[in-house]
Predict the structure.
Amino acid sequence: MGEKEQEVEIVRLLKASNGYASGQRLSASLGVSRTAVWKHIEALRKMGYAIEASPSKGYRLLMGDARPFNGVELSTLLAGRSFGSEVHFFESVDSTNARAFELARSGAPEGAVVIAETQTKGKGRIGRKWESPAGTNLYISIILRPPVAPQGAAGLTFALAVAVAEAVSNRGLKPAVKWPNDILTGGRKTAGILLEMDSEPDRVNFVIAGIGVNLNMKKEFFPENIRETATSICEETGSPVDRAAFTADMLSSMERWYGVYLKEGIEPVLDAWKGFFRSTGKPVKVTFLDRVVEGVCRGVDSTGALLLERDGAIERVISGDVEAL
Ligand code: BTN
């Protein structure tokens, strides 16, 4: 067991023991000295765990259900899962997508996740920046290795959007999806998804699914240019979100919808996605790389392309930025 695994194991044992766990027991379970256990306890305290030490009884976790947001807690929470099988937690990175890309290149398995407290170069879609301050939101990238051709990976976009929307509705909100995969609450952007792919002509090597969810960010801390168009779950519900618990919840939805997509294809995924899509029949503006057009949204076809009606004709949109008018 490496140092990090030992800390995860100590937290697991402290949580499992209703009360004190003796230093003797911890050291025997881990196969390390009691001094080593004590050093880990010190490290865990620095990570935000309140641990009481009694010379006669041992160690006790004092936090009840309160959870810090760090690699140890996330690993404890995600133990045994496929999505979250490996947790790479960083206090600060340029972009979790960039880190996940490097890890995937060097062979990290499907389900490995990269999570950061803050990103210095958080990436959004279409070359935009993703605001990534510390201490408040979720920035996560998941390594996926779907056994499909590059064209088949489009369905993933929708599977992930459904999973994020589901996790947001589990917090008591009624999210909507904005084609293809923005998540809005009360009409404002709450989460975004950025997929990056490494592929050959006939197969996908891996996909990095990067997800940013505004969880506890207060309105006044959003930069001015997005203050009216973005929001967070806490702003909408008035209750702070436990970031680690939200992460575990969202990953379990993702694992499930990814499974549905691989086994049954895009159809059931799109059916679920349509349950969150509210733009059908409404006027929209679509920004392409080279032009901007307006029309009426007529839903999506069986591949997930957006159907845009203009001057009586239907145009299939497969990439672009869609806004309600
Ligand atoms: C969007 O523009 O809507 C997509 C935003 C995706 C942001 C997330 S945050 C975690 C991951 N790392 C990044 O650099 N971007 C994605």
